[in-house]
Specification:
This protein is of the alpha+beta class. Among the domains are: 111 residues, OB fold (Dihydrolipoamide Acetyltransferase, E2P) (Beta Barrel), CATH 2.40.50; 92 residues, Nucleic acid-binding proteins (OB fold (Dihydrolipoamide Acetyltransferase, E2P)). Helices cover 14% and strands 30% of the residues. It is built from five helices and twelve strands. It has a five-stranded mixed barrel. Strands 7-8-9-11-10 form a five-stranded mixed beta barrel. It is elongated, with a radius of gyration of 52 Å.
């Protein structure tokens, strides 16, 4: 009896086991409390979004933060300053018939004539000549046209000076070397010449000056050659210091340095030094003849006394004329 009951218990237990196994692992494991391996399930709308991927910097996607867009170019947008326009923007502009940079006024728009006009003695054109006596501080920096007679000449390391007189006053015509070299009528620009010049009014050490921008702005209306009272070399003395004289003689010898030269002349009555600054020497026509003994030379210059010796100092290149070379 006992064995029959035991057999039934075993049979019932086996049947329960088969039923548990047959109904699925989920029920069995739920009964036993063991973990269950569930089959893959479809994600629902409440599923947690996947974590963001970490990409290399070169492949990183742009952030969602909006960046300001460059304002669209339009015809009403002011043009950027020169140098800041990119080639693309520059090429996008419509071609303009005139340059963007303001043009300087043409010389023909100035109230004064061009240097190639009436300043060279040509007839025609309207010229406003300012009396030299009218020049003053109120005209400093302005361009004027003046006319006068050369009453004095001089030189300095960077150019030449000509004092003009028109009867109402005097003013210095200042010509830098480049301007003097550019003047086609420089040979006739000497004491006694009548000159018309257009230039800017300036002041140096209290003296008013007119500075032309180029040689063409200086017109010699009545040319003059270098001239002074002829003197024999032997007749000159210290009492003639400061006088303008003209001498003529033959070259005895020469001396010189980088910025000056001394030419010793003799005319049979005496010998004297002609002192010539380099800026004048370089512009004397045929100046190589000054270095040849027995060359005949005529000089117009001012008598000076240097260390008890008489000298004649020319002020302009055309004050020295090489008459002949042996």
């Amino acid at each position: 009896m006992v064995m029959r009951r035991s057999f039934r218990v075993v049979t019932i237990a086996a049947t329960v086991a088969v039923l548990v196994i047959g109904c699925g692992n989920e029920v069995g494991r739920r009964i036993t409390g063991e973990p269950v391996s569930l089959p893959p399930m479809r994600a629902t709308a409440t599923a947690t979004p996947p974590a963001e991927l970490s990409l290399p910097p070169e492949l990183a996607l742009p952030t969602a933060t909006p960046t300001p867009l460059a304002p669209p170019r339009s015809t009403v947008e002011p043009s950027p300053p020169p140098g800041a326009v990119s080639p693309t923007a520059a090429s996008a502009r419509l071609p303009s018939p005139t340059p963007e940079v303001p043009l300087k006024a043409s010389p023909t728009l100035e109230p004064t004539p061009s240097p190639e006009g009436p300043l060279s003695g040509e007839v025609g054109g309207s010229v406003t000549v300012t009396p030299i006596g009218r020049l003053g501080s109120d005209l400093l920096g302005q361009e004027v046209t003046v006319e006068g007679v050369v009453v004095d000449t001089g030189s300095f390391s960077s150019g030449f000076r000509f004092t003009l007189d028109d009867g109402t006053g005097q003013v210095v015509l200042l010509m830098w070397h480049a301007v003097y070299d550019d003047c086609r009528e420089a040979a006739g620009l000497n004491q006694g010449a009548r000159v018309r010049v257009t230039g800017e009014v300036s002041r140096y050490e209290g003296v008013l000056q007119v500075e032309p921008a180029g040689g063409g702005a200086v017109g010699v209306l009545e040319p003059a050659a270098a001239w002074a009272d002829p003197r024999s070399i032997g007749s000159l003395s210290g009492v003639d210091e400061g006088q303008r004289v003209m001498i003529e003689g033959e070259v005895v010898r020469t001396e010189g340095r980088e910025d000056w030269a001394k030419v010793f002349l003799s005319d049979g009555t005496g010998e004297i030094v002609v002192f010539i600054w380099r800026n004048i020497l370089d512009r004397i026509p045929g100046n190589t003849g000054l270095g040849a003994p027995d060359s005949r030379v005529r000089v117009v210059g001012t008598v000076t006394v240097y260390r008890s010796n008489l000298e004649v100092v020319p002020a302009l290149p055309y004050d020295v004329v090489v008459l002949g070379v042996p």
